[in-house]
Amino acid sequence: MNNNKDGKDWENSLPNDDCNTTMFMNKFTSRLKGGNIYNRRVAIASFPGSGNTWLRHLFHVTTGIWTGSVYFDPKLYHGGFPGEACSCNDSMTFGLKVHDIEHARAVGCTFDDVILVLRSPYSSIVSEFNRRKGQGHTGVASAEDYNSKDWNSYASKKIYQFKSLMPGWLNLCNNFSHEGNPACMIVNYEDLKGNPRGEMKKVLNHLGLPLGRLRCLEAEEMVSGPFHRNHKADDVTRSEHTSPPLCMLNKPIRELLYDVIKNTSSSMQVLKNGDRYVKELNHDLPNC
């Protein structure tokens, strides 16, 4: 994918239809019906390990617009995500990666739309542990890693983090709904994995963006992206251990995870499509 790191301004033109071209944008008046649809701050939100980076890649491919981040990840920046260097209020990018809404507010970031990527906290924590121990966004932890005290410590910390982060996003989405503004969309990770093109069509429709570049996802290499962990990595994690990673945790930590999933499921059950979100939260949760 070609990187336009000079931040070329499209002026009054629309994004390029070339699947291999992604550009920065400046504020410009769209000729599409509805006015300047690009002059917004959209949070691409998630708990770490939920597929945020992958969804950003899919957004780059299907829109031709770079996304930014509240954080700065040098590996992503040097690996093909130049929007990492943009500040949260920079008009060069459209969406912003963010995990913690309170942290975003503390550094002056505000949002008028949210794309929340939802993934089973168990799968997310395993994914992040794989990334941490596997030295990168596509790595896999070893059996020894999951048999270590570090796994218990890491999982416990992350479960508490999930418990603290999710209510902030759910409250923001709820506030948007009460204001009569459907400015929040929840994307299930497993749905995105099973049908990237279909889910991205929903995302683009939600944002009111053109659908012309959805055809770019017909090519498998355009779907995967440089930082998306191969789906087979989850199978490797399962096959390399005599017990699932969850069952290697101390019982109090497992019970904490069960309680967090139960409470979050109760909060999401009342939402539209709540049953689908509950299913996602409990995905791949083994019995120990």
Automatic annotation (TrEMBL):
InterPro entries: P-loop_NTPase, Sialate-O-sulfotransferase, Sulfotransferase_dom. Keywords: Transferase. Transmembrane segments: none annotated. GO terms for molecular function: sulfotransferase activity. SUPFAM superfamilies: P-loop containing nucleoside triphosphate hydrolases. Pfam families: Sulfotransfer_1 (PF00685). Its EC number is 2.8.2.-. It comes from the Eukaryota. Gene3D superfamilies: P-loop containing nucleotide triphosphate hydrolases (3.40.50.300). Residues 114-212 form the Sulfotransferase domain. It is an enzyme of class 2 (transferase). PANTHER family: SULFOTRANSFERASE, WSCD FAMILY MEMBER CG9164. Belongs to the sulfotransferase 1 family. This is Sulfotransferase. The lineage of its organism: Eukaryota, Metazoa, Chordata, Tunicata, Ascidiacea. The gene is Wscd2-001.
